[in-house]
Each structure stands twice: as structure tokens, then as C-alpha cells.
TrEMBL record:
Pfam families: PLDc, PLDc_2, VTT_dom. Residues 142-169, 366-393 form the PLD phosphodiesterase domain. The chain crosses the membrane at residues 507-527, 548-581, 587-606, 648-676, 696-714. Signal peptide: none annotated. Keywords: Hydrolase, Lipid metabolism, Membrane, Repeat, Transmembrane, Transmembrane helix. This is Phospholipase D/Transphosphatidylase.
Amino acid sequence: MLNEQKGISMTNNASALFKENENCWKTSQATHATPLIDGENYYRALHSAICKAKHSIFIVGWDIDSRIRLLRGEEEKNASAPSVISELLKWKAEQHQDIKIYLLRWDSSLAFFSQREMWAKEVWDNKTPDNVETALDSTIPMGGSQHQKIVVIDDEIAFSGGMDVSTNRWDTREHLVEQPERVGPDGPHGPLHDVQILTSGPIVKSFAHLVRWRWNRISEKKAIDYSPIQDQSNALPASWPGDFPPTMNNLPCAVARTIPFMDGVEPVQEVRRMLLDLIAQAQHFIFIENQFTTRQEIAEALNKRLKACPDLQVIVVSSYEPKGKFESEAYWASRIDFKRILENGIESERVKITYSTVTNEQGKSTQKRVHSKVMSIDDRYLVIGSSNISNRSMSLDTEVDLVFAGDCEQNKKDITRVRHDLLAEHTGRSIEQVEKIFASDDPLNRLLSDQAEYGYQLAEVSDEQFTNKAWQPVFSSLSDPEKPLIAPIQMSSGKVVGVGNPKQKTIVFMLVALLVLVLGGLVYWASHSIPWLTAENLEQFLEDTKGTMWVIPTICIIYVIAGLVFFPVTVLSLAVAAVYGPIWGPIYGMLGALISSATLFGLGHIMGERGLRKMGGAKIQAVDDKFKDSGIVGVAVIRLIPIAPFSLVNLVAGISSIGLIQFLAGTFLGMFPPMIAKGLVGDSLSKIFTNPSPETIGYLALGIGFWALMIFVCQKLARMYQLKKAQAS
């Protein structure tokens, strides 16, 4: 009845569910396919395929870290080609000078600063020859990410799924408690589970077009045309890695994407629609393996299907412990809600949310981090992709899932074997043992019972130990949003049709409140924990640095140096105000900022457009576009709305058509009002240290309030200017 209500009928051909431009982008066929389970297998297969490449290599990822070793142990020692990805691609590019290699990586936000390689484009450009092109995608809406993970080689084979060439991804299928080789550029890490799928045949054409579309929309150097070396026959392509023979053949499949609104691109939510349609087809068993489960719409669909099909069972395999406050309050707190919705009115033996844990024979225990994104529906459908079951993956990030359909008995056996292989790993059993369990009447509960004492087991989650959900609204709105944190202006037929984000004001106010709490906590901690931080010492320091003839030259030099190293100008201005007070602090700070702006303006002019674009990639174009025909008012708007770091704006101004005097005048108009507010805040902070009292705390609160008001007013004025410019054009 449920399927009839949705307009979806159960047919012998499972692939009849696939509807292009509704729940998928393209329908096709995978002539050959094999899942690559866990990092060791994926990296080995990727290394082999790169070595065999002759024509082209496209790598699209959330991250592409130049330092990652693809091989380990004896295989790495005995390999004829380099193991480190950057050295391997350099070797390949020099070996075949006609080959074209394209690397497209997300130009990520500061939220992932500690997890990513700094200056990624510059690093890759320095490590590789000219036929290796690198681009950073900065067109993703604020709050979203470039989350697709695709590799296409010679337009004949494609890798897709949950794995990036990034830190903390490598592990073996054994997921040992102690593994000496499980170490990356940032040090050792714990067990991690992931899944990638390797395919050949007609489906590769879809991935080849997708990676080219992603590349061509942001890069001035267009990618080469689609050109497979051999025809799409049943034979294995020459670039197929020999150690990984196909385990599935001739499967109907579909590509489903999430594309957010970005630079005029029409957004699509094929992944979301596909998952809902797949769940509506389930009869007996749904297996889900996913990093995050927060999307309540998916939980509601699962619950509805469980109620409609009394024989249906559902198991979710995810991770045990969150990493940091954002995960605990955004994802683990939301998993509590997901679990509550999923289990509502359903017998406990029919649905389980689990994690994978291991104890070795020495009694040491740990939990496997699950990063994969897999779903199987009975023996009819198998999803391997990049999408988490989260709000952001359904609408805000760029995602791509590959969905296989079981149209014949062999297809069904192939899909079922993947499910059994994964569950065998998670429960410490063999595939044959799992097959016997699924031949019984109650496979779900037998999977969780009678597991081995040592090795991996599945256990039910209990997320209340990690969060009381008090901060869930704040962190969920920032870490797992459905819409951009700041939406771009949307135009249609020359008219503004959309602007802003209704949640933005709430987020700003919550961030201000959080800032006040953090500052208060730091003051309390410092006053009780740092012996030398006393009122007398600080007063003496202030007296020693004020009133000398070197004040202005010192401040100017500090601002110039800070600009050259991209040090945040806000932090520096607060420090100057703390030392020199609410009157002279802003004056000195403004003078230093103008000198720094002029210096970097000249440096940008010397470097020229080509040099700057090599340094900053796509961000240079974004800032340069803002300068075109902007004038003094336009520069003031750019200073008020932080579209790019202070230093980068100064450098790009040097190659724009705007003059130095205009630029400095606009900088003064845009920066001086906020500088006054920073002066009040910085002076209040110093007085709290030297004279902590209700009066000084009140001044700090007043200063922060005035700063927030200045930001609000300036943003309003800037938005009015933006709208006027947009409507005029």
C-alpha cells in the first residue's frame, strides 16, 4: 500500500525505480565492479591504477593530501613506483609527458584547519610538473563542503565512495587495536572503516562528465575532452588494478547527487529522494553503515516502513565516541533524536543502532571509527557513496552516490554478498557464518548474539553518556545545517529573488553569547592559573610601552609584518587597544592598518595577476570581482563584509583597476567604525586584568555590545549597497 501511495510499484526489475532528473542524475550499467573495503585496499588499488594510467587522471575530493603514503610495509619497500601520492603523480607526469592530471580539492573553512594540509595548492604546484593541474573549489555555500570523492583514470575506470586521500584514513580490514603502520603525517590514529567502489563500463562516462563539469566551472584551464582509450567492451580495462578482480558484473546502476545552490547552479537533491524511494521498497532487511545519522526525515521514513512491513528489520552501524564538542552536540545529540524517531512504536528486536568494538587477546579494547556511507535494501539495492545521513548531505554539501539494482539472480547474489562481507567484518565472523544467520527467522538479533569473545563485535549505542543535548541547537545549526549559514544573493531575470538566511541572526547572537562566555572563562582561568599575570606586572608593562618616540614606528612595523604572514587584523587591533586605550588604540591601529594595506597593495602590484592567482587560486577571482568598478564605497563594503582575509584583499587590490588613494580612503571608511568598537573591547579587557571589578566587567559587556551593534549596522548598510548594485546590473 505504501509503495502504491508513492506511485512506486514493486517490479521484478529493481532498476525501474531509477528516474533520471528525479531520484538520480544518470542511469547506466557497471560492466565490472568491486568494493574496496578499508583504506589499505583502496590505496593499493589506487596506486596500481595510477601506475597504469596513460591518458588522464582526475581526482576530486574533500581533501587530497600530498603527504599520504598509498603503500605500506614490504610492498612499499619493493615497489617500483613511489608510494607517497605527490611523488607518485610527479613520477607518472614525468614518465608520460602527454598525460593530463587534474586535482580538485575543497578550499575548506577554518573549521578543518587542524585536519588539513596548509597551502594545498601551492604545495601541489611546487611538488608536481606543469601537466599536473590543481584547483581549490571555493564556490560551495558557506557552511557546506565539497564532499564528493571520485577518481577517474583514462576515462575507463572510476573509484567513488567515502574515501579521500587524506590523513587518518589508512587501515587494514583487521582493524587491529595496535597497528604500527596506522600512522599519518599528523601521527598515529585509531581503527577506521570505509568503503570505496571500483567500476568500469558505461557508468564511467557519467563520472567522467561529472568531474569535468566540476573542474571546468572553476578553472580557467579547461579539462581535456572525454576520451576512453578502449571501447566499453566486457574486457577489463588496461588500468584496472590486477590485485582486485571484479566481484560483481553487469549491474544496472544510477548516479545520485546532491548539488547545493552555488554560482547560479540549479540545486538538486537526488540523494535525498533516492534514499526515501529505496526505503519505501524494503521488505525484509535494511543494512545501513554510515558516519552520521541525524536526518530526521530518513528516520521517519524508516519508522513508517517498519510499521507497514511487520517482517522488516533494520540495523545501523556507526561510530561509538564523538570527536570534540561539535560532533557530540551536533551529531551524537541528533542521533539520540534519530534513534527515538526510528524506534517509535517498533519492537526493540526489529531495529538496532550499533557501533563496532574490539577486544584483543591481551584484553585491550577500542572502537572502530566508521566513515563509510553504505546502504543495502534486501537483495535488491546497494548504495555506496559519499553521503552521510545528515541534513548537510541532503542539501548543502556536494555529494555523489552510486546505486546498484538487482535485476537478475546474479545481481542479487552480488549485492547480498557485499552486505554479508561487511557484517562479517563488524561481527568477527566469516561470510559463510553470516549467510547462515540470514537463513534464519531472526537475523538481526542473531548477529548481535553469540559473538566471539575476542575480535570485533557489534554493540548498541548509548549516546546519552556523551551529551545532555543542552548545546544541540547551537552546534547543529553550525555543523549540520540544511541551508548556507550566509546565503548568496539570488537573481532571476535581473531581479533579486532571494537574500540572506533566516537562521543567520540567531547564529550571530549565539556566537556573541558564546564569545562572552569564552572570554569570561579565560579571564577566570588566567587570574587563577598564571602566577606572573598580576595587576602590578601588567601595569608596569603598560607603563614601559607607552609614551616613547618609537610607539608609531613599532605599531606600523608590527602591522606590516602581521599583514605579510596573514595574521588576523582583528586580533592585532584588540591587542593594540588593550595597551594604548580606547582613544589612541583605534588611532594607532588605523594608522598601522593603512600602512600595512599600502605595503601589501604595492606587493600585489609587483607580483602581478599571474603570481597572485598561483598563490590564492579561486579566491583571487572572487576578491577581484568585488573590486571591479567598486570605487571608494565598494572598498568600504569589502572591508565591512569579510569575504576574504585582510591581507588577501590588500594584495588583490594591487592588481585591480582601483588606485592606491581610493583604496586607502575606502579602507579607512570601512575599518574605522569597527576599529573604535574594537578599541572599547580591547581597553575593557586590559582593565579587567588590571582592575577586575563589576564596573570594568560592565565596560567590557558595553564594548562587546557596541561592537556587535557596529557590525549589525555596517552589515545592513553593506547589504543595501549590494542590493542596489545587483539591481542596477
